[in-house]
Amino acid sequence: MNVATGYLVRERLRFVVKFVVLVLAVILALELIFHLAVAPNLRLSRVEVSGGKPVDDAALLQLLGLREHEYYFSFTESELEDRLSGLPWIRSSLVSKVFPDQLIIHLTRRQPLVLSVENESVLAVDEDGSVFEANAGPEGWDLPLVSGLTFPRREPGSRVPEVLVPLFRQLKDLQSSSPSLFRLVSEIGVRKNDRGSYDVVVYPAQTQVRILLGDQWNAQVLQQMFVLLDLMKKEGWTGKTKEIDFRAIPVVLRPRGS
Question: What is the model's pLDDT at position 216?
Answer without folding.
Answer: 66
